[in-house]
């Protein structure tokens, strides 16, 4: 806590978003419409700002960190599930970060990717070059529909089966959360 | 740090070989994995019990598969349970979402076609072109979809016809002798196997065709040559030239190699996945198909003794309860070891260990006992798993828990070794070889009676400790040990009285004789002196004999129906049971 | 069993003890407490999260998390009801935990049902709608994907979790004794 003591939170949240009081939000954070942030979630904009796109779900124990000076843009309808730890450079739409999945810095995540429970993703070493100024100059892009799964965090491509059903589920899920979460939890004013 | 119990298998119970014999380790098991046969009055383990399959079930849908269907289903779930070809997770059936576009909100529960989807890695059966009309009975639908190639099927039919004549010839000869043998031969179901094989030949065999043809041929040949000369089987002429098929497969391999070059190593299916499949699978990942989930079994376990064969375990098919459960944990005391303490060096016996001769060691041991009489010995608690140090003296507490509803008496010794064992790495002293353990009571009874645990036990145990002898792993002279222990007993009492002065009298009484009692647990000390220059694993065996009160005559025994010796039935009220445990203490650093 | 197991102490006042003997850490996050039922003599340790607020969509009172006797929710473990579409509408489903269930630290549980005498090792992730029948062991660091069924007397491990072993017949007694002993040793210092 002492490390971040000086860091003031500058949160810009859309009026339709739901943010629980019991969350740890630090730095320059923009929350778009319809986002639900569960209690005990953490968003740390330690370097540049973090912009969370529409209708994202950030569950308890999820940690989103931006250490780089650049903006971390998160697209729409992403679900950050329990205990995931995300430090990616940018995130597209409709991605799923399953419980306790880890995504390290240097990754650009496109759309419809799934990071399965307990997996770890980091850029392949050949793509990461430490430039003279100490910043990573190259990043790896995770192509759309990638699934990271299993003990070795193998990658494969999802054929898009039941994509519509899953998207429908995600939409209904967040709709229901916006209804139920305020009934039981104290919210941050938006 | 572990304590395991010895199982002598079918032998008469005897002290196992010393730990230095690698072969002795196979007969040790933890107490929770052992069984107990009341008829034979002996311990049984998973290695020696005879097992039979009581029931089959699918671990995914938990359906109890009737044993009559198991063979036809090839030991796999014949309903809708498939495992993912990529990650082996169970696949779930989902409706396709094509009709969703209409209203956009309500009609997510779309109809057919149905696909199998993996929740672990998002694999879908669309990738291999599997789609189903109904969400149930997937295995059956699949069987209709994928029938064997005509070539293989007709070959199999021809071979089946060929072997049929042979099996009908051999059956009468095999069944007659086996029925007479069945009374004593444990593997009496051999005749069943031939019957089963005969039946199985008439059944549909799916992907295994080529493999099973080859196998069955050799198996029947080996199994039957005693009864029916194998040459009575006429030569089988294959309908097709399989040499040609082999050549075709050869060219497939070449294609596969090309594909591997194109797709990289990920295109190649992993070995364990290919092994899980039937014979003759493609080596490529994209060709991997979902497999039906293998069935699991519940086992019935019997005593292995040919004259006994009593049931030890009989599971209930419906619930997790056991109809019969004869486990050693309900008969033998549980032995645990803990509270390791290291003796802190006394100023008078600081010597460099390498200069010590055997007399020095003897002297030191005597010294040690004497010093305990005077000033309390300083000891230091240590973590149980820390490496041991050569030349140090450690004391342990060993706890025995009585599983019986009667008090028992324990004799704790080191087993007498008839075999030549290599020179020991340590001396083991058991200061309190005789003690009692209170009876197991219902949990609520302890709260009230904890403090007034029966004094009878204390009295008798004091009597024991008078004659108690310390037994060391060396063959120390009789007089030496006797005197040593005599001193030990006395001095221990005085030391304990110092220690327990602050506590209440009753507790002190319980501690008398070096036994710490609480409920149905008694704890005693072990002393272990690691010799200088000792190396490696420290492990030793303990022989534990317990005396228990046998049930009255005539009434059927519920707990301890041990009537091994005929004279015991009439005269003795008390019986003995001896077992051996191996204590692994740790490594010498 | 457990003759040498040490006491597990907590600072006095850091746990709330209920009439039925439950011990709930003041530092556990419990939302929607009215929707949670504890059977008695269960322990909920520091840092754990119980999401009682994620209830069914239909009107009325609903039990979201029910727990039997002699259960343990280890430090930092999260219990969260699973959700899915039912007749086109999203709803959460209750988590039912029976007696003698030990959930070790840092687990994420979204199971539908956990039978009695189940031990879940450290750092496990139990996916949505997983059904664990009575008497089973989930080894530490196991990940069970959504909808996995764990039959009685089985041991599961790995990511994704697979059936790796079966349990000895004495497991029920061992587990019950272990749970009772843990509860008795868990005391204020």
UniProtKB/TrEMBL annotation, chain A:
The similarity comment for this entry is: Belongs to the dynactin subunits 5/6 family. Dynactin subunit 6 subfamily.
Protein name in UniProt: Dynactin subunit 6
Gene Ontology cellular-component terms listed: dynactin complex
Key words of the record: Cytoplasm, Cytoskeleton
GO terms in the biological process aspect are:
mitotic spindle organization
User: Could you tell me the superkingdom of the organism this chain comes from?
Assistant: Eukaryota
Q: What does this protein do?
A: Part of the dynactin complex that activates the molecular motor dynein for ultra-processive transport along microtubules.
* Primary location recorded for the protein, binned into one broad class: cytoplasm
Please report the organism this UniProt entry assigns to the protein.
Kwoniella dejecticola CBS 10117
The answer, when asked if Cytoplasm is one of the entry's keywords, is yes
As for subcellular location, the record says:
Cytoplasm, Cytoskeleton
InterPro entries xrefs: DCTN6, Trimer_LpxA-like_sf
Any idea which GO molecular function terms this record carries? dynein complex binding
Automatic annotation (TrEMBL), chain B:
A Pfam family matched in the record:
Dynactin_p62
Which residue ranges are recorded for the region named Disordered? 346-379, 460-516
What are the Low complexity biased-composition ranges? Answer: 465-501
User: Is this entry keyworded RNA-binding?
Assistant: no
Sorted alphabetically, which keywords does the UniProt record give?
Acetylation, Coiled coil, Cytoplasm, Cytoskeleton, Isopeptide bond, Phosphoprotein, Ubl conjugation
Biased composition of type Basic and acidic residues is found at 503-516
Family, as annotated: Belongs to the dynactin subunit 4 family.
Kindly state the subunit structure of this protein: Subunit of dynactin, a multiprotein complex part of a tripartite complex with dynein and a adapter, such as BICDL1, BICD2 or HOOK3. The dynactin complex is built around ACTR1A/ACTB filament and consists of an actin-related filament composed of a shoulder domain, a pointed end and a barbed end. Its length is defined by its flexible shoulder domain. The soulder is composed of 2 DCTN1 subunits, 4 DCTN2 and 2 DCTN3. The 4 DCNT2 (via N-terminus) bind the ACTR1A filament and act as molecular rulers to determine the length. The pointed end is important for binding dynein-dynactin cargo adapters.
According to UniProt, the name of this protein is: Dynactin subunit 4
UniProt source species = Kwoniella dejecticola CBS 10117
State the organism's lineage. Eukaryota, Fungi, Dikarya, Basidiomycota, Agaricomycotina
Automatic annotation (TrEMBL), chain C:
Q: What is its main location?
A: cytoplasm
The keyword Cytoplasm appears for this protein: yes
Q: Subcellular localization, per the record? A: Cytoplasm, Cytoskeleton
Q: Which Gene3D superfamilies match?
A: Hexapeptide repeat proteins
Q: Which InterPro entries match?
A: DCTN5, Trimer_LpxA-like_sf
Q: Would you name any one GO CC term?
A: dynactin complex
Iron-sulfur found in the keyword field: no
Signal peptide residue numbers: none
Where is the chain membrane-spanning? none
Top-level lineage group: Eukaryota
Q: Which UniProt keywords apply?
A: Cytoplasm, Cytoskeleton
Annotated family:
Belongs to the dynactin subunits 5/6 family. Dynactin subunit 5 subfamily.
> What protein name does the entry list?
Dynactin subunit 5
